Amino acid sequence: MTETMYPSAIGVRADLDRAHRRVWDHVSVVGEWWSAAERRAMAGIVRDAFNDREPSPPWSPASQDMLRWSTGADILPATLVDALYRMTVHAHTITESWYRQFVQTVVDEQAYVELCGIITSVVAVCSFARTVGAEPPSFPVIAPAENCSTPARVSTAAERSPRNWVPVTTQGTRAPVVEALSISQIEYDLLWDHLAPSQYMSIEQMSDLAWTRGTLSRAQAELLAGRVAALRQCFF
Q1: How far is Cα 39 from Cα 142, in angstroms, rounded to an integer?
Q2: Helix (H) or strand (E) holding 52
Q3: Is CB count within 10 Å lower at the N or C end of the chain?
Q4: How far apart are CA 149 and CA 232, in angstroms?
């Protein structure tokens, strides 16, 4: 039997454990715009930033400090390390003008969406680990084949949406949250095929207002989600 990802006194559902294990495998493979080593470095920075007990303020560059204590910070540009830290710890301070400058001077928009996918999935795992009183899981070893693979970096046909800053594809043009990662197929699939169904609900289940899981009704789940989003100053 495979050991659970969360050694904890709290029983963790098997589907949730599998989904989070998939996240850790997912950030260890080559992406569409980032190499396996770069994705792993990003994931390490996000994990360490999320668990930083004395976080730097959003206007203070975190890259110099992270070089001393975060695995992977040395292989990424300082501007990218700073952005990853800020988006993980101070996401509510991100503005559209910041985003526009970032994609003009640091990374391509599709590369930005891929790194957003990495941030959101890694934070989901770290947040859950903290909730159940478990240590942040260790990442698996990157396979040699993944280390030798290079991202294709092929531009995806996209369109602009009034609901998002980032470009989106037709598969995602239904709602702000659904379309946000659509230009990055691998991040979109991870979220909606694995994380959403186990942590929240699938896209199909969202249309069923009577849907429920366990002891929470749909209305109760939405109330909790809305309250948490407000406390964390979530854009949506």
Answers
A1: 11
A2: none
A3: N
A4: 37
Q: What does DSSP assign to residue 192?
A: I
Place of tokens 């989070």: 20
Helices (H) and strands (E) in the chain, counts: 11, 0
176 vs 174: CA distance, rounded Å:
7
For 89, phi then psi, to 5°, come to -95, -35
Range with the largest mean pLDDT of 106-110, 161-165, 202-206 = 106-110
Alpha carbon separation from 125 to 6, 77, 139, 183 (Å, rounded): 10, 25, 12, 23
- pLDDT averaged over every residue in the chain: 87
pLDDT for the residue numbered 174: 63
Query: How far is it, in rounded angstroms, from Cα 226 to Cα 72?
Result: 34
What CA–CA distance (Å, rounded) separates 39 from 123?
14
pTM, to two decimals: 0.90
